[in-house]
Design the sequence.
């Protein structure tokens, strides 16, 4: 029982999955760093403005040099993020290609097994046997059709003509004239208004 719960399941996470995850984590860290630097650059720009207003030009210049250096770092960070995203896309596409290749490999193996069962020689043999069986049946049909003598053919035609010329028996038409149909008058029920009119008259 302890064995059942103690057994570790084989992970479905591949080395490629781990590599993609690490690359994405690095990319996300770089993006966070980029965001922090941009916020810091904005603050330093404000500080440089204040220093200029206060007449501290040299300190403002020094701060702007620092800002410029950080902007260069920001450009490098952007390039690194682009490289990481490109690498992630390449790895993901390679995984898809590997799955396609595995599918093709399985398909080829199935085809090869089917070809071993049905070789070209086997198909040719089956087609030949089918052709022979059809030819044999055709010969039997010809023998059966040719087994009637001329006398039999004449008898068949004569019977056909007899059936064609036979008249279908219909019932006799009556010679007496048909009786005329008498129409009976149905009394119409008077409405209360009509009954009232008759009573008053």
Sequence:
């Amino acid at each position: 029982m302890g064995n059942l719960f103690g057994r570790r399941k084989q992970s479905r996470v591949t080395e490629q999955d781990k590599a993609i995850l690490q690359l994405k984590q690095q990319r996300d860290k770089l993006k966070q760093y980029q965001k922090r630097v941009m916020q810091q650059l904005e603050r330093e720009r404000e500080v440089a403005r204040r220093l200029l207003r206060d007449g501290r030009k040299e300190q403002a210049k020094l701060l702007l040099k620092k800002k410029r250096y950080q902007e260069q770092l920001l450009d490098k960070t952007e390039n690194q993020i682009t490289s990481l995203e490109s690498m992630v896309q390449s790895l993901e596409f390679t995984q898809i290609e590997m799955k396609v290749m595995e599918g093709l490999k399985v398909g080829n193996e199935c085809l090869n097994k089917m070809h071993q069962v049905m070789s070209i020689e086997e198909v040719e043999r089956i087609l030949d046997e089918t052709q022979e069986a059809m030819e044999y049946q055709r010969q039997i049909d010809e023998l059966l059709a040719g087994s009637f003598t001329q006398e039999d053919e004449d008898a068949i035609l004569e019977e056909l003509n007899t059936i064609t010329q036979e008249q279908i028996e219909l019932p006799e038409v009556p010679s007496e004239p048909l009786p005329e149909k008498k129409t009976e008058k149905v009394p119409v029920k008077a409405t209360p208004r009509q009954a009232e009119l008759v009573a008053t008259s």
Notes: The chain has a mean pLDDT of 80. Helices lie at 2-6, 15-53, 57-117, 120-146, 150-165, 192-200. The two ends are 114 Å apart (CA to CA). DSSP finds six helices and no strands in the chain.
